């Protein structure tokens, strides 16, 4: 379990050890120095009215306190740096995994769910792993220091009091297992909660126009309720553990006072020794409780790390089909258990151009997703490897970056750059190369995606309604470029209307009632 958590430090081991050890050393210094100064102050300086010793002790305490606090300030800053680096590493890794997930999974859960899996959970785990490692080492070193001080002041009293410790350990383990089970549930509800909330907020325009605010709010509050209930359950268990632990601590507090006071009555301890012992003993108890508290947290964290890594189990192996034609044989295609296309058989060979037609909801986009390799097909069917496919698929999406970055323009060969510049000029997008396509008009977005599709060297080109939202003049320009750039390549295109371009295709695939017929 520990190894799994330590692995999270990976590339930042040096920084992690610096933060952990520096913090633990400061804690150890404070644990040892505080009781000794207190004893010297009471027994030697105050009792003997030794002003010089008193002043020396005060000045020493002030310097030490300022020095240690300044040290803690720098450690806090490095700690945050470490957390940020770990979060960034893990989120980067998880983003890589996200893009390997089967489309079916991404489609089923939604992007909001994966924000939680890719960012929230790694951020939370990084924060907690650093916090926990720092706390464990701080508690361990403080415990050693405090125990040494207590034994030095009175080994008999210390021996009598250490009997309480095993009880606290037994309690912590009992509650640890409960919290592990709850952390799994918490992670899942948190991720689903994100996705559902995003869907509610996305209805901004819909809600205002159709006065749906109240219903949207009700739906959001229902989702919130489930999320808060799960938080409440985990909190309840943690609080129960905390309360029990505090009760045992109060009992220990009374015991130490009584036993140490008896030692003073019988003359085996000075008053300064009693105060120093109380200070040392409480540091020891706090360290023990600090350590004990880490057990349920450790179990909770370990469950979370497993959850993050479990995303990797879903990653799909890349398809390595060498097929250069598209063959579907009795394929049933859909999302999850629901089949939109029930029994589809056709073959489109290399260099053929296939127009796909059918009414709304007949499964045109679904079929294009299958041919692009996003929806699995049966074993008898085969399609080319996704690396040899270029596709404009609905809905159009853009990451936060310029059109230049989307096109990987600066990595292209000079001849490819020149051709792309001609395309963008004809599409009236050349002066928008450095703009974010997310803020383009609908027609401009469509043109940007056509340019993106044509910029990829592929064997199969797929276009889902490339002329939608495009002005009449631009349609000829777009179709002209598509025809020029895809000569001798396989093309699948969905068009609604635009009959004048139908003659550009030698195959026609009609979808209806879950079936396909090719002519
Ligand atoms: N992402 C999705 N998840 C689940 N079901 C979906 C998804 N997308 C589409 N569907 C279902 O698949 C059916 C076919 O949708 P599809 O988008 O393939 O139709 P289409 O022929 O392209 O329609 P249109 O002409 O309106 O674009 C729809 O009835 C819809 O319920």
UniProtKB/TrEMBL annotation:
Gene3D superfamilies: ABC transporter type 1, transmembrane domain, P-loop containing nucleotide triphosphate hydrolases. Keywords: ATP-binding, Membrane, Nucleotide-binding, Transmembrane, Transmembrane helix, Transport. Residues 35-300 form the ABC transmembrane type-1 domain. One of its GO terms (molecular function) is ABC-type transporter activity. It is found in: Cell membrane. SUPFAM superfamilies: ABC transporter transmembrane region, P-loop containing nucleoside triphosphate hydrolases. It is a multi-pass membrane protein. It holds the Pfam family ABC_tran. PROSITE patterns: ABC_TM1F, ABC_TRANSPORTER_2. The chain crosses the membrane at residues 15-33, 53-76, 143-171, 255-277. Residues 326-518 form the ABC transporter domain. The keyword Flavoprotein does not apply. InterPro entries: AAA+_ATPase (IPR003593), ABC1_TM_dom (IPR011527), ABC1_TM_sf (IPR036640), ABC_transporter-like_ATP-bd (IPR003439), ABC_transporter_C-like (IPR050173), P-loop_NTPase (IPR027417). It comes from the Bacteria. One of its GO terms (cellular component) is plasma membrane. This is ABC transporter ATP-binding protein.
């Amino acid at each position: 379990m520990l190894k799994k958590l330590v692995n999270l430090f990976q590339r930042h081991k040096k920084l992690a050890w610096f933060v952990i050890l520096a913090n633990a050393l400061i804690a150890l210094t404070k644990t040892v120095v505080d009781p000794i100064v207190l004893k010297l102050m009471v027994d030697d300086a105050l009792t003997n009215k030794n002003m010089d010793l008193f002043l020396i002790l005060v000045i020493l305490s002030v310097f030490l306190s300022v020095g240690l606090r300044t040290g803690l300030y720098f450690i806090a800053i490095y700690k945050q740096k470490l957390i940020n680096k770990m979060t960034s590493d893990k989120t980067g890794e998880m983003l890589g995994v996200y893009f390997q997930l089967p489309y079916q999974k991404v489609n089923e859960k939604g992007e909001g769910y994966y924000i939680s899996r890719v960012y929230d959970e790694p951020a939370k785990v990084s924060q907690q792993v650093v916090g926990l490692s720092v706390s464990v080492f701080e508690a361990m070193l403080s415990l050693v220091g405090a125990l040494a001080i207590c034994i030095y002041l009175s080994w008999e009293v210390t021996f009598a009091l250490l009997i309480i410790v095993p009880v606290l350990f037994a309690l912590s383990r009992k509650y640890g297992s409960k919290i592990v089970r709850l952390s799994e549930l918490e992670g899942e509800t948190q991720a689903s909660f994100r996705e559902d909330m995003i869907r509610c907020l996305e209805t901004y325009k819909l809600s205002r126009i159709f006065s749906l605010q109240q219903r949207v709010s009700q739906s959001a509050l229902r989702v919130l309720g489930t999320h808060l209930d799960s938080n409440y359950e985990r909190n309840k268990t943690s609080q129960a553990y905390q309360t029990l632990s505090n009760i045992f601590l109060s009992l220990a507090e009374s015991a130490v006072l009584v036993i140490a006071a008896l030692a003073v009555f019988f003359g085996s301890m000075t008053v300064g020794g009693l105060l120093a012992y109380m200070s040392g003993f409480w540091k020891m108890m706090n360290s023990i409780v600090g350590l004990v508290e880490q057990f349920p947290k450790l179990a909770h964290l370990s469950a979370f790390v497993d959850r993050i890594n479990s995303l990797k189990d879903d990653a799909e192996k890349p398809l390595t089909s060498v097929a250069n034609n598209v063959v579907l044989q009795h394929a049933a295609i859909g999302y999850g258990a629901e089949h939109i296309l029930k029994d589809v058989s056709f073959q489109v060979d290399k260099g053929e151009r296939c127009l796909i037609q059918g009414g709304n909801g007949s499964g045109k986009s679904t079929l294009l997703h299958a041919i692009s390799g996003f929806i699995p097909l049966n074993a008898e069917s085969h399609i080319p490897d996704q690396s040899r496919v270029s596709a404009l698929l609905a809905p159009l999406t853009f990451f936060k970056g310029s059109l230049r970055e989307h096109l990987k323009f600066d990595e292209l060969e000079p001849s490819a750059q020149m051709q792309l510049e001609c395309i963008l000029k004809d599409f009236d997008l050349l002066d928008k190369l450095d703009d974010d396509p997310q803020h383009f008009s609908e027609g401009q977005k469509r043109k940007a995606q056509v340019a993106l599709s044509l910029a990829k060297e592929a064997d199969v080109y797929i276009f889902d309604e490339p002329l939608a939202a495009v002005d009449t003049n631009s349609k000829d320009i777009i179709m002209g470029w598509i025809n020029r750039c895809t000569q001798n390549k396989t093309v699948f295109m969905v068009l609604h209307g635009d009959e004048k371009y139908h003659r550009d295709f030698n195959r026609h695939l009609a979808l209806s009632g879950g079936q396909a017929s090719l002519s």
